[in-house]
Amino acid sequence: MSSNRIVSRRYPKPQRASVPTEDAELVDVLIVGSGPVGATFARILVEGNPNIKVLMVDSGAQLTAKPGANIKNLYIYNYNEDGLDPLSQVVKGELTPVSVPINDPWPETLEPISQPLTPPVSYQLNGGNPDQSDWENMPAAASSFNVGGMGAHWTCCTPRPTAAERIPFIDETEWDSWCTRAEQLLKTNQTAFTTSLRAQVIQETLASMYGTELPTGRGVQMLPLACERINETWVEWTGVDTILGSLADTGTIPAERFELRAEHLCEELWSNVLSPDDKDIVNTSIRNLKTGEVYAVIAKVVIVAANAFNTPQLLWKSGISSHVSRALSQRPAHGLLPDSLEQRASGGDRHALGSSGSERRSGADSRRRSDTQCLDSVFRS
């Protein structure tokens, strides 16, 4: 029996909740998730078109005054090295396991092939999954449920992907173009620590040992970091607030153009809610986690950027085919070009998309499928 059939048997498709749409809120773009990906879409769309309304929702709370600010910028963690150890404990506390381990797991050193088909183990029922086999569990996998996601406490290391890490059907020119744009949004640089004596000693030592063995352009160099040196003793580390730019400053962008709602969960997506002629308009069910209120938001475009776990979960619950959800974790992701998405949000074609973006391949030759075709296939499947 295939794993897909097992999943289907164990977890029947949820029934769609009844959410009234008569008083639904209308927006041009709904972004689910406030991490670096969602924030990038929000900034590019709002800056690129003054006539659209972008609504962003996140199930997590806003932990800092500016949405998604990197907590490494708090004085106690930033000023000296003594702050690194307490910071690591804070980060661990902000990570929520996505899979509750069972009571009696098999030793990690024992491969699944060596385990019996029906292992004699007991299951943790309180918060766990009674049907989950131990080798199907991911006890080390965790997500951040807060505005900014992992961008609120990431390491800010931003080296460009090597040839082995690059998606083969995207040409080098496009790769370099988008990497450059990303570095601008993240404030990536290699100069923040050039005055550090320790960094200089490490660089010189490594270069003397390995410099002649490394390929051209990949020699020993300062690690590209997403940060900005403010003065001799202070470095401002990039967070989602950096990516959002002016969108993170209260009152700078009117609420009718951009709004971020923390502790609001997008529970489901579906289409064809107004009339057969509007079959591509996307209706969403949003829950205010504090009050429990459930309301509808109707959007021309929905961008699901809710991390590798919650994105396929939302797509599956919304009835989007299971093969799409599996593809999100099995294939590299590539987002829509901002100008084409902006055109759709301004009144063109209306679609829902997952963070997998557009898939480009054709037989032996890897060629780009059009964004429109891909989004149609994602939402209509």
Query: What is the H/E order?
Result: HEHEHHEEHEHEEHEEEEHHHEH
Unreliable residue stretches: 1-11, 119-127, 329-342, 348-381
Query: Percent of residues in helical segments?
Result: 25-40%
End-to-end separation: 23 Å
Overall mean pLDDT stands at 75
Shape: globular
Helix segment tally: 11
Radius of gyration: 23 Å
Q: What structural class should be given to the helix and strand makeup?
A: alpha/beta
* Portion in strands: 15-25%
Q: How many strands appear in the DSSP assignment?
A: 12
Largest beta-sheet characterization: 7 strands, mixed
Features:
7-stranded mixed β-sheet, globular, disordered N terminus, 381 residues, alpha/beta
Structural overview:
- The protein has eleven helices and twelve strands.
- Strands 1, 2, 8, 9, 10, 11 and 12 form a seven-stranded mixed beta sheet that branches. The protein has a three-stranded antiparallel beta sheet with strand order 5-6-7. A two-stranded antiparallel ribbon has the order 3-4.
- Helix 2 packs across helix 10 and helix 8 runs antiparallel to helix 9.
- 31% of the residues are buried.
- The N terminus and C terminus are likely disordered.
